[in-house]
Amino acid sequence: MKILLVNPPNSGKSIPEEKYGIDSIKQIFRGEPLALEVLAGNLRDFEVRIVDLKAAPDSLPEVLAEFSPDLAGITGVTCEANSVLKLAAEIKESCGAVIVVGGIHASNDPEFFNRAGIDYVVIGLGKASFRELALALRDGKKGCAIPGVAPVGPGRPLQYTPRQFSAADLGDDVPPAYELVEQYRSSYYLAGLKLDMGFVVTAFGCPFNCSFCCIGGLTGGRYLTHDTAAVIRDIKMLGDIPVVRLLDANTFGDPQHAERLCGAIREAGIAKQFLADVRSDTVVNHPELMQKWKEAGLRAVIIGFEEISDEGLKKMNKANRAEVNTESIAILHEIGITIIGDFIVSPDYGQDDFDRLGEYIGANKVDLPMITVMTPLPGTKLHREMRDRITIDDLDYYTLTNAVVPTRLAEETFYRNYAALLREGHAGAKL
Fold first, then answer.
1. pTM of this prediction exceeds 0.90
2. Which of 18, 273, 352, 383 is most buried, by the most CB atoms less than 10 A from its CB?
3. What is the CATH superfamily name and number for domain 188-426?
4. Class of domain 2-166
5. Over the stretch 219-229, which tens digit does the pLDDT of each residue have?
6. Digit-coded pLDDT (tens) for 238-261
7. CA distance 35 to 102
8. DSSP string, 49-108
9. Is 198 helix (H, G, I), strand (E, B) or coil?
10. Cβ distance 190 to 197 under 8 Å?
């Protein structure tokens, strides 16, 4: 059986660009489709291909004509959900393949894909469950009894058994199929910073429950860590790529695991630089761990500061405090680790709020602020809380750079303030 795994093209629309000519808000980084490489690694007894439409946006027709898959798996985030539907229709019309949709949006809003032209929705981590489905289809079974796999039935709600995710779903014994994207490898870089970058995953999920976050849907709220030997294997497989992005929601969610991994990297003699996600309270509670990681090659951390006031953090159910955020910045500066700080501007921001955020970023010398607009993603607690305020339901606009509820300021004023924050924060930024 032939299996095609599809990474959608860059998707999403921009209100500030369409309405006000502000094109500086777009933030596109082309990275390898690690989720599909992970799936493919567990399908080595099938004939598998990956087509990355972010790197080669016009290549699907040629691939379908030449490969003609029996089964096609498509992943996608929320702003790509409409593109996934279009890709599914194109593939179905071309070769009649069984269509399976997975990824972050499918995991949090599976009913969106409960429509004609799609055959199955994989909810949560798919490394094990997608393989189970592929084996069932190869054997002539319909696969409807696989936990975490929902057969599509338009006109009725999806019916499936939720999967109880565990270490078995990580499949540590088989590595990602990095070789299947070799033809795209030169495209995977941070153009603005001229960095070639590869992806490795060390953990899935997050032990916290921020109201805006969609990560929990991947693991049913659990935090699962890969075996350190498997992570070292995957890092080595990237060859001479100098920078490795540890593509976890929270690399340091289990400090003991993070310390073991740090030791394993040093013992293996790996000379690479790493980018990883960490919470500010982890930095404050474990500064010695951050120092060890710095010595092992940690170049930069991505921290979700989100807000600069306790009140704002409480509204997000962030389970953190503003003073902890500020203290973590000082610790990381002292150690010499670059800070990529995630901040969220609310559609309810007034001029004073924008000014305070800009002053905070400048005063605390956040190296590279990454600023998004509070977006109630379907399936999250925030979406349930804000549902009555949402005026834009078109998922193409759910890029985290559009306000999908009315803004407190005049809309153009809101976006010009937002663009100014990005411009000022990125001026002279270095990793």
1. yes
2. 383
3. Aldolase class I (3.20.20.70)
4. alpha beta
5. 988 999 999 99
6. 999 999 999 998 999 999 999 999
7. 10
8. EEEETTTSTT-HHHHHHHH--SEEEEE--GGGHHHHHHHHHHHHHHH--EEEEESHHHHH
9. strand
10. yes
